[in-house]
Amino acid sequence: MNNKYFDKIPKIEFKGAQSEDPLSFKFYDASKIVLGKSMEENLRIASCYWHSFSWPGGDPFGGPTFQRPWMQKGDAIEMAKLKLENAFDFFEKLGQPYFCFHDADIAPEGSNFAETEAIQKTIVDAIQKKIEDGNTKLLWGTANLFSHRRYMGGAATNPDPDVFKYAAAQVKMCMDNTKQLGGQNYVLWGGREGYETILNTNMKQELDQLGRFMQMAVEHKYKIGFQGPLLIEPKPHEPSKHQYDFDAAAVYAFLQKNNLEKDIKLNLEVNHATLALHSFEHEIAYAFANNIFGSLDINRGDPLIGWDTDQFPNSVQELLMPFYYIYKNGGLGSGGLNFDAKIRRQSIDPEDLFYAHIGAMDICAKTLLATEKMINDGVYDQFIKERYGKWPTTDAIAANQSLEAIHAEVIDKDINPQPKSGRQEFLENLVNRYLD
Ligand code: XUL
Ligand code: CO
């Protein structure tokens, strides 16, 4: 087997919409200026290590379908190094500005925590060298607190304090490693922080544990001087029946209760929003409304399938409003667009991983161009301004007023509000104009 898995793939170039070359960008033109910044700076696209390099193509009914050089039998640390070589070859060929990883994606576990940490260190040092020598940086790192059987009953929320301690040690290690690699954010996704059955669950105890765990994560961030924000990634369920970080609103309540809302922001994911029966733009609008927007995991679900299918995005229409909220609010900041997405298990060739990323990057680029049109045109913005135009400032909402005073005013002035059209179809037509 050729150990250079992407050997036959050329460097991917921007060739324009007319290009027939499937291994070229049609719309993603990294240096093109949109909304005052290059596309690359605006979109801050990241590949994820887990779906693209670690996941072997299995599903609940069938085993691995991908036969990649680093998935062969052999010394696990050597395989991790081979994976790393190929991953960075992929990033460079694609011109990928960022990547994201879990500790478990990059290296195998040792026989105890100390050994695992030593193995991580070897691989993290190798990644650091790749980052220094290349063009791909780290958007975020995270600890996998959900795959190993020790976490089956929760990590921070486990009834066994030793599991809580193991998870805390793992987060310390991963945050330190993320800092070493110049990571711009640190993510916490609580796939096991919830329950399979409420029958065996002390919810107050678990929520208190989770609160203290997150406070310690923030304390550690300040202790080591990690610059980026910590991000919680909401998801309502899967793998657990119920996850405490259900959606943006549930996480915001949790953050406020634990005095964490200044230090922890959100990493929002398309398919997690829809599993919570929200649109993606709902979650983004909620995050901006409460000043907790952090970053995005950008993928898509399948409307006919009820779980997290983690597919690459392929619809400008679906992304236009999410992008509008983001770029209207100043852009992604230190966040980015992480493709938390995997190719399908029948997509077994090296090209397939490129087609997925190229297509998704083109979709993001097209959506950014449509967003620019929509922002510059200003008609939508004006509509919203006018719709709320009678509220002079937010301070005026309730300043110096009371129910009693308003009650008197309604009678005195004979206030009798007349309904106005919400103009939904007009707005749907308006938004469609930007999609061409
Ligand atoms: C799972 C998921 C995770 C997080 C990182 O649904 O989205 O991959 O993004 O742990
Ligand atoms: Co995710």
SSE order and pairing:
Elements: E1 13-14, E2 24-25, E3 33-34, E4 37-38, H1 39-43, E5 45-48, H2 49-54, H3 76-94, E6 98-102, H4 103-106, H5 113-133, E7 137-142, H6 161-180, E8 185-189, E9 194-195, H7 203-224, E10 230-233, E11 242-243, H8 248-257, E12 264-269, H9 270-275, H10 280-289, E13 293-297, H11 316-328, E14 337-339, H12 350-377, H13 379-387, H14 403-412, H15 424-433
Helix pairs in contact: 3-5, 5-6, 6-7, 10-11, 11-12
D-xylulose is lined by residues 102, 142, 187, 189, 191, 233, 235, 269, 297, 308, 340.
Number of helices: 15
CATH C-level class of the largest domain is Alpha Beta
Would you list the SSEs in sequence order as H and E? Answer: EEEEHEHHEHHEHEEHEEHEHHEHEHHHH
* Alpha-beta classification: alpha/beta
Rg, rounded, reads 23 Å
Task: Indicate the overall shape.
Answer: globular
Uncertain residue segments: none
Q: In CATH terms, what is the fold-level topology of the largest domain?
A: TIM Barrel
Q: Determine the fraction of residues in helical runs and give it as a percent range.
A: 40-55%
Largest sheet: 8 strands, parallel, barrel
